[in-house]
Amino acid sequence: MSLSKPILQSCQEPCGENETNNLGSTYPGIMLPSNNGSVQALDQQASSAHNQIGNEMSFESQLTELEREAAMLRDISSQLDDISNSTMNKVSTSDVDSRSVYIGNLHRDVTALELALRFSSNEDVVRVTILSDKTTGLPNGYAYLEFSSVEGASQAMARMDGTPLRGRKLKVRWKRTNIFGYNILRRGRNGRLVRGVGRSGYRSFGRFQGIKHGASIPR
Q1: Is residue 118 a contact partner of residue 112, using CB atoms and an 8 Å limit?
Q2: What are the backbone angles phi and psi of residue 42, rounded to the nearest 5°?
Q3: InterPro entries, from UniProt (predicted)?
Q4: Contact call for residues 200 and 176 (beta carbons, < 8 A)
Q5: 139 in helix, strand or coil?
């Protein structure tokens, strides 16, 4: 019995500042909420932090989407540029061909300057191209002349077709634009594959077309 009295007295004495156990009191190193207002404040802070994280993630997502759309626009722009350049090249080639003539049955010793002087009328000749075999390097016996205008090419063709040059009668025709199907494999009458014979009956020799199938090739 003598031992219980000091214990009761100790409990009846005021507890120290750091030893109280009421709700909302302070324990060493631990802060507990003392009322409902503090709990709501913590909830608001947590909600605000969550919203901030969500906003940052939303911004990153929007930035990624914008970068993806920008890459798509660059790709589309590049494709449009390629299409535009291809169209311009085709238009340019078609324009040149419309002002060009084919000259066949040429003597192999004929030079580009000789052809230009022979066909020029008021300096209408813009370019002379004498084609050669890529293997032997020898002229194929034909050439192309480009004029500055369609009228100039037409007049030269009417004036020069059938005229002699170095003992040969020139064959002057409109230049044929390359047609799809010249340089593909086709089956001949005997079932064998034949390369280079297109719908127009022209055969490709070397890198160029223009010699009619079955015509003699200059040696």
Answers
A1: no
A2: -65, -40
A3: Nucleotide-bd_a/b_plait_sf, RBD_domain_sf, RRM_dom
A4: yes
A5: strand
